[in-house]
Amino acid sequence: MNRLVPSISRAIAQVTGSPLGPYQSAVIRIGFSATWLLFLLREFPHRQELYGPDAPWNWALGKQLTADNGAFSALLWSNGQLWFEVCYLLAVVSSVLLLLGWRSRTSSVLFMVGVLSLQNRSVFVGDGGDNVLHLMAIYLVFTRCAQVWSLDARRAARESAARARGERVTDRLGPALWVGFGLVLAAVTLGGRFDNGWLVPALLWTVWAVLGLWWLVGRFGPTSEPRTLLDVIANILHNGALLVIMVEACLIYATAGWYKIQGSRWQDGSAVYYPLQLDYFSPWPALASLLSASGIMVMLVTYGTVMVQVAFPFTLFNRRVKNVLLVAMMIEHLAIAVVLGLPFFSLAMIAADSVFLPTPFLRRVGGWVARAPFLHPRGTGRTEPNPEPESVPVSMAISESEPESDTQSAPDPEPEPSPESPSDQEPQPQPQPQSQR
Fold first, then answer.
1. Eight-state DSSP code of residue 346
2. pLDDT (0 to 100) of residue 376
């Protein structure tokens, strides 16, 4: 009992004191926004057949289905061609903004609206990757996913440096976005467009109100107790959403693996052979024929897939085994993307798997990218911002019994609190280092 109480206290302080997994949440943000953006761009010539007013699953059928199941889709507010083009363009723009991490609080909400609007418009278009993207678009709204590798983080670093020099920092764009967002919400609500359910409208209005409250508290009481309380609530929501994403990924693999075990083709080791013989899943027939020609190869891939999916949730408490299976699953998804022609499903699953990647590995990757010659033609590099020492994913916080010396650093001194705009993604409590020119 003497050891249990301090452990619980440290866990509570860790969950409420800082947003965990800054690099993991950034990879999830980049991965899912890039997946959705690439899908929208690839299907741009075919957007009319997929989601347009005259699609096979026409506007009247979509309206009838959403009236029955209460799903949200802004595309069904109007049957006009112009409204469809505007919604599709906004979905593309919001994906780009979230990918870059620009005003992530606002762009994450717009990203969610775009994903739900298009996918709920034609529910029979897509695959399992769309279901994962559907859920993750909602979870991202609750995360502080722009702490690193984002334009928000760079802007926060510049503002921190300006305040350190004694300059006054004023953000006019953030309040303007908040006011515009509120006017649009009010017009849609008073127009009776939210008639299929209350969940999405309640979420949108709650986000709008919280962002306004955050700005007011930061503007008039940056060091007050209400600001501290809001920061604690934001950390809890972020860490809870990150945990939900982890559990979601584990459930996907566990259910897929146990359902496979019940199939006779998976039991005799021949299940992988049959998809390779379908023209629909064979963009490279020669490659599919080469892989299916070896019975031993088919059997190994079949049994290996089942074993990895069933075992993965049980390996989260062992860091080394978890990392090995994580690499195996990512390689499997890459093979599915190439051999079976399902790139967006594979990208969505790899993005979901990224929540389990080790922080040291992600920091090294970020350093390599920051020093890439194509980003710095004159040969200058950029210093990678250091997150808080405790900012590691929940699974690592549980499973890593020995800390790694190369990833621990002393925390930076606390910066002077400052007012934040209602549409700005809140930065880490530590100031970010500036670029080295």
1. H
2. 60
**Rounded to an integer, what distance in angstroms lies between the CA atom of residue 106 and that of residue 238?**
16
Interval 136-152: pLDDT, tens: 999 999 999 999 999 99
What is the chain's mean pLDDT, rounded? Answer: 83
**Three-state SS for 143?**
coil
**Percentages of the chain per state (helix, strand, coil), in multiples of 5:** 70, 0, 30
The amino acid occupying position 40 is L
Q: What is the C-alpha separation between 358 and 397, in angstroms, rounded?
A: 11
Q: Report which residue type is found at 195.
A: D
How long a stretch of residues is the chain? 437
Residue pair 359/393 in contact (Cβ under 8 Å)? The answer is: yes
pTM of the predicted structure, to 2 decimals: 0.84
List, for residues 156-205, the tens digit of each pLDDT value: 899 889 888 888 888 888 889 999 999 999 999 998 888 777 888 999 99
